[in-house]
Protein backbone atom coordinates (compact mmCIF):
# COMPACT_ATOMS: atom_id res chain seq x y z
CA UNK A 1 0.00 0.00 0.00
CA UNK A 2 1.33 3.43 -0.95
CA UNK A 3 1.95 6.00 1.75
CA UNK A 4 -0.51 8.87 1.63
CA UNK A 5 1.30 12.17 1.17
CA UNK A 6 -1.59 14.61 1.65
CA UNK A 7 -4.96 14.54 3.39
CA UNK A 8 -6.79 15.24 0.13
CA UNK A 9 -5.88 11.69 -0.96
CA UNK A 10 -7.73 10.12 1.98
CA UNK A 11 -11.05 8.53 1.06
CA UNK A 12 -12.63 9.62 4.37
CA UNK A 13 -11.72 13.24 3.63
CA UNK A 14 -13.07 13.01 0.07
CA UNK A 15 -16.36 11.51 1.26
CA UNK A 16 -16.61 14.12 4.00
CA UNK A 17 -16.18 16.85 1.42
CA UNK A 18 -18.94 15.26 -0.66
CA UNK A 19 -21.23 15.23 2.40
CA UNK A 20 -20.45 18.87 3.11
CA UNK A 21 -21.25 19.82 -0.49
CA UNK A 22 -24.54 17.91 -0.47
CA UNK A 23 -25.88 19.65 2.64
CA UNK A 24 -24.54 22.97 1.35
CA UNK A 25 -26.56 22.63 -1.86
CA UNK A 26 -29.72 21.89 0.09
CA UNK A 27 -29.13 24.93 2.30
CA UNK A 28 -28.39 27.11 -0.74
CA UNK A 29 -31.74 26.11 -2.23
CA UNK A 30 -33.39 27.92 0.69
CA UNK A 31 -34.91 24.83 2.29
CA UNK A 32 -33.89 25.87 5.79
CA UNK A 33 -36.15 28.94 5.75
CA UNK A 34 -33.47 31.25 7.13
CA UNK A 35 -33.11 29.24 10.35
CA UNK A 36 -29.55 30.47 10.76
CA UNK A 37 -28.94 28.58 13.98
CA UNK A 38 -29.50 25.14 12.47
CA UNK A 39 -27.81 26.20 9.23
CA UNK A 40 -24.71 27.14 11.22
CA UNK A 41 -24.80 23.96 13.26
CA UNK A 42 -25.38 21.55 10.38
CA UNK A 43 -22.84 23.26 8.14
CA UNK A 44 -20.41 23.44 11.03
CA UNK A 45 -20.66 19.76 11.90
CA UNK A 46 -20.39 18.62 8.28
CA UNK A 47 -17.36 20.84 7.76
CA UNK A 48 -15.88 19.68 11.04
CA UNK A 49 -15.70 16.10 9.76
CA UNK A 50 -13.42 16.96 6.85
CA UNK A 51 -11.53 19.63 8.82
CA UNK A 52 -10.66 17.26 11.67
CA UNK A 53 -9.43 14.62 9.22
CA UNK A 54 -7.22 17.25 7.60
CA UNK A 55 -5.97 18.74 10.87
CA UNK A 56 -5.18 15.35 12.37
CA UNK A 57 -3.26 14.31 9.28
CA UNK A 58 -1.28 17.54 9.23
CA UNK A 59 -0.28 17.24 12.89
CA UNK A 60 2.20 14.59 11.86
CA UNK A 61 1.87 11.97 14.60
CA UNK A 62 -0.19 8.81 14.70
CA UNK A 63 -1.55 9.57 18.16
CA UNK A 64 -2.79 13.04 17.20
CA UNK A 65 -4.21 11.75 13.92
CA UNK A 66 -6.19 9.08 15.77
CA UNK A 67 -7.40 11.71 18.24
CA UNK A 68 -8.64 14.00 15.45
CA UNK A 69 -10.23 11.10 13.58
CA UNK A 70 -12.18 10.53 16.80
CA UNK A 71 -13.33 14.15 16.69
CA UNK A 72 -14.35 13.69 13.05
CA UNK A 73 -16.34 10.59 13.96
CA UNK A 74 -18.05 12.55 16.73
CA UNK A 75 -18.95 15.25 14.23
CA UNK A 76 -20.55 12.57 12.04
CA UNK A 77 -22.84 11.71 14.93
CA UNK A 78 -23.62 15.36 15.58
CA UNK A 79 -24.41 15.85 11.90
CA UNK A 80 -26.77 12.87 11.86
CA UNK A 81 -28.57 14.17 14.94
CA UNK A 82 -29.03 17.54 13.26
CA UNK A 83 -30.45 15.82 10.19
CA UNK A 84 -33.27 14.49 12.37
CA UNK A 85 -34.03 18.05 13.46
CA UNK A 86 -34.01 19.20 9.84
CA UNK A 87 -36.32 16.34 8.86
CA UNK A 88 -38.68 17.03 11.74
CA UNK A 89 -38.93 20.69 10.68
CA UNK A 90 -39.48 19.66 7.03
CA UNK A 91 -36.31 21.41 5.90
CA UNK A 92 -35.25 18.24 4.09
CA UNK A 93 -37.23 15.45 2.46
CA UNK A 94 -37.19 11.85 3.67
CA UNK A 95 -35.16 10.94 0.57
CA UNK A 96 -32.57 13.66 1.26
CA UNK A 97 -32.45 12.61 4.89
CA UNK A 98 -31.81 8.96 4.02
CA UNK A 99 -29.12 9.84 1.47
CA UNK A 100 -27.29 12.08 3.92
CA UNK A 101 -27.65 9.71 6.89
CA UNK A 102 -26.40 6.78 4.82
CA UNK A 103 -23.36 8.75 3.66
CA UNK A 104 -22.62 9.99 7.19
CA UNK A 105 -22.88 6.42 8.55
CA UNK A 106 -20.53 5.18 5.83
CA UNK A 107 -18.01 7.92 6.65
CA UNK A 108 -18.27 7.13 10.37
CA UNK A 109 -17.69 3.45 9.69
CA UNK A 110 -14.71 4.14 7.45
CA UNK A 111 -13.21 6.46 10.05
CA UNK A 112 -13.54 3.71 12.66
CA UNK A 113 -11.84 1.20 10.36
CA UNK A 114 -9.09 3.73 9.68
CA UNK A 115 -8.60 4.34 13.42
CA UNK A 116 -8.24 0.59 14.02
CA UNK A 117 -5.74 0.35 11.16
CA UNK A 118 -3.65 3.18 12.58
CA UNK A 119 -3.75 1.69 16.07
CA UNK A 120 -2.32 -1.56 14.72
CA UNK A 121 0.37 -0.13 12.45
CA UNK A 122 3.97 0.60 13.38
CA UNK A 123 3.87 3.91 11.48
CA UNK A 124 4.26 6.73 14.00
CA UNK A 125 4.03 9.75 11.70
CA UNK A 126 6.38 12.21 10.06
CA UNK A 127 7.09 14.21 13.23
CA UNK A 128 8.11 11.03 15.03
CA UNK A 129 10.47 10.11 12.18
CA UNK A 130 12.24 13.44 12.45
CA UNK A 131 12.58 13.12 16.21
CA UNK A 132 14.07 9.64 15.87
CA UNK A 133 16.96 10.82 13.65
What's this entry about, in short?
With 133 residues, this protein is mainly α.
Explain this structure to me?
With 133 residues, the chain is mostly helical. The chain is built from 5 helices and no strands. The protein has helices spanning 11-28, 36-59, 62-88, 94-120, 126-132.
User: Can you give the helix content as a percent range?
Assistant: over 70%
Task: Supply the CATH architecture.
Answer: Up-down Bundle
> What is the count of helical runs?
5
How many individual domains? 1
Radius of gyration: 16 Å
Largest sheet: none
Strand % is under 5%
- Arithmetic mean of pLDDT: 92
Distance between the termini: 24 Å
CATH superfamily: 23S rRNA-intervening sequence
CATH topology: de novo design (two linked rop proteins)
Report the count of strand segments: 0
User: Any low-confidence stretches, pLDDT <50, length ≥5?
Assistant: none
Order of helices and strands: HHHHH
* CATH level 1 class label: Mainly Alpha
Which of globular, elongated, flat, extended, rod-shaped describes the shape?
A: elongated
Amino acid sequence: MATVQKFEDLEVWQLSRQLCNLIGKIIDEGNFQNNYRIIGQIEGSSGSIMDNVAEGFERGTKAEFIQFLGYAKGSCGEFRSQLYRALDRNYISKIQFEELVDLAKMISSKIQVFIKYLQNTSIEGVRKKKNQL
